[in-house]
Structure formats: C-alpha cells, structure tokens
Structure to design on (342 residues):
C-alpha cells in the first residue's frame, strides 16, 4: 500500500477512520473486514493479513460501543474504589484487572475519594455507559445510587464488606468482627488501656465501634478515639498520636484504621523515644507491603485483597456471559498478623 492510499479524513463529524475505510483499503467488503477482526476463523489467512495491514496503516480502532449495542455486550467492567494512592486496595485492583484482561474484558476505574456524593456521580456516569458489570468497594447504602443500580439490571459485585442484603453479588469480610478480634488480641496480650486512631469512613466506624464494645465487655475503661477525618497521611498519623498522648497519656495499645496511619504514629513514637511495644503497642489494618519491613515491623490485620479481586472478576464475567453464580455471597475472612509492635 502507498502512503497516498490512506483514506482522507474528509468525512462528516469527527473524521474518524471507519471499518468501511479499512475494507476499501484492504480491497474487501465491510462484512468481510468485520469477520477478519472479530471472527478471524471465518476468513482466509490472506484476507486476514490484508485487513490487518489496512488496520495498521490507518490506525483504525474498532468502535466497541457500536458492537456492544448490537450484541448487548461491551466487554467493559467499571470499578469504583476509594483511592489508589498508597492504597490497601491495590492488590484487589491488580488481581481484578489481570483476571478481566485474561478473559477479554477491560477495566474502567473511578476513584471516589471516600466521598458518598462523588461515588454517586461516578455511578450515574458508569450506568449511562452500560458496562457488562460494576465492581464496588464497600456496600452501597440505600439511596439514589443503589436505586439506579437495581433499576439498570447490570451485574454488580460489592466488596470489602459484608451485608445480608447485597445489591447482587458480594465478596468481602466483616469489619465488625475485625474490630472485636483486634480488641480481644490486645487484651490477651495484657493491654488494658486501649485507644484508636482512625480515619472517617463507614467501614472504619464499624471496626471502631466493635473494638470499643469488646473493650467495654472486658471491663476496661472507655476507648480513647482520635479521628483524623478524611486525612490518611503519615503526617496525620503523627499528629494523631500527639493528640492521643495528650488525652490519654497512660494508653498502652493503639489500633489504627490503616497501616499508613500506624506508620505515622510509630514515627512519632520513635521521635519521642517511646518504647514500642514495651510502653505502647500498635496494630494497623491492611498489611500493605511496607508493614513487614518497618522497624519495628507492624502487627496488622491482613486481608487477602488479591483473592477478592479474582473472585469478584470471575463473578462478573460469569454473570456477563449468562452463567449462574453460586454462592453469590463469599466471606474471605481476615487474619491478625503479629509482628514486633505487639
């Protein structure tokens, strides 16, 4: 093919190269070009080569939206996650993406920033694009977003939480159980003056509530809580420990709602010369990669995020391709990993 053979971009609208242009350049009918791209076994190797050369020459990219309208399949999965920056959710996102890609699906990712209003706006935009499935981090509470999802009929998998009333499918674990078991773990280690450093979100709320309740059931004093709000930085962890020591100087154990906050708190403890774990023990949440390499190494709650991503992807793929999903609710559980900070 000569450079001059490339179709001129003089068509109406955006001027995008179309399948008809590819077919003309390859010297075949548009239906033959379509078969060469979508069902290559139906055409000869020679025709397939001509069409692929035309695709390479023109830079043509198939309009998946048009194909989706014809087949009711987009091969697109949309995911809404709170954050991807220093995030406990990264193993889940990576496993979700890899499993989908291997099955011929693409992942579209949106970040809610732990904002309910932003999550609702993302869902409105996602539903309008009619993906083959939607992945949610957490449980969607009653509201417009949940109503829209139920009305859309798009397969949905909620993750990183548990509820007896999921929208559709669910792969997660109990935050209530985590809070309770971390308190029991620290009490069994001889800790009696428990405290919390936590960010502001619904899942952290439930862990904190169960943690405080377990402490009260054991006859301990009320748990001191430092809420850092929407901030989830190392700096906020340092500042939170400063506040905690002012309010409860006799605290002997702290449960942090993320490993990053725990890292900040531990940094502040080191600056102050506090003996860890002799005077003050720490437990984080998430078991992110740096937790085991800290000095001292951080005790934390481990969630198998990669399993969540793989299972959620398989659920969505099966539903998109018309297969039954059983069971629709999977509890992947959690474990407390003891290291040097306890």
């Amino acid at each position: 093919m000569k450079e001059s053979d490339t179709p001129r971009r003089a068509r109406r609208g955006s001027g995008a190269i179309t399948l008809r242009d590819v077919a003309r350049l390859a010297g075949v009918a548009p239906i033959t070009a379509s078969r060469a791209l979508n069902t290559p076994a139906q055409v000869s190797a020679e025709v397939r080569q001509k069409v692929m050369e035309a695709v390479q020459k023109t830079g043509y990219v198939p309009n998946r939206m048009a194909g989706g309208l014809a087949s009711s399949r987009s091969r697109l999965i949309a995911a809404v996650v709170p954050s991807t920056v220093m995030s406990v959710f990264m193993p889940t996102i990576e496993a979700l993406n890899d499993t989908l890609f291997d099955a011929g699906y693409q992942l579209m990712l949106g970040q809610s920033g732990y904002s309910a209003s932003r999550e609702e706006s993302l869902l409105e935009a996602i539903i309008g694009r009619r993906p083959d499935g939607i992945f949610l981090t957490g449980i969607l509470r009653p509201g417009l977003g949940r109503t829209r999802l139920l009305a859309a009929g798009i397969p949905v998998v909620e993750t990183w939480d548990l509820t007896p009333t999921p929208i559709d499918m669910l792969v997660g674990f109990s935050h209530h159980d985590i809070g309770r078991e971390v308190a029991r773990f620290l009490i069994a280690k001889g800790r009696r003056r428990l405290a919390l450093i936590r960010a502001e979100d619904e899942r952290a709320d439930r862990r904190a509530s169960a943690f405080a309740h377990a402490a009260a059931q054991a006859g301990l004093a009320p748990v001191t809580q430092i809420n850092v709000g929407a901030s989830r930085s190392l700096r906020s962890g340092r500042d939170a420990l400063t506040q905690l020591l002012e309010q409860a100087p006799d605290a002997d154990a702290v449960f942090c709602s993320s490993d990053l906050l725990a890292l900040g708190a531990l940094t502040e403890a080191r600056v102050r010369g506090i003996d860890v774990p002799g005077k003050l023990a720490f437990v984080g949440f998430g078991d992110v990669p740096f937790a085991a390499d800290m000095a001292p190494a951080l005790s934390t709650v481990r969630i198998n995020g990669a399993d969540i991503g793989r299972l959620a992807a398989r659920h969505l793929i099966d539903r998109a391709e018309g297969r039954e999903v059983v069971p629709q609710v999977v509890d992947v559980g959690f474990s407390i990993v003891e290291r040097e900070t306890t």
Q: What stands out?
A: The CA atoms of residues 38 and 62 lie 10 Å apart. The chain has three domains: 3-62, 74-173+305-332, 175-302. The radius of gyration is 26 Å.
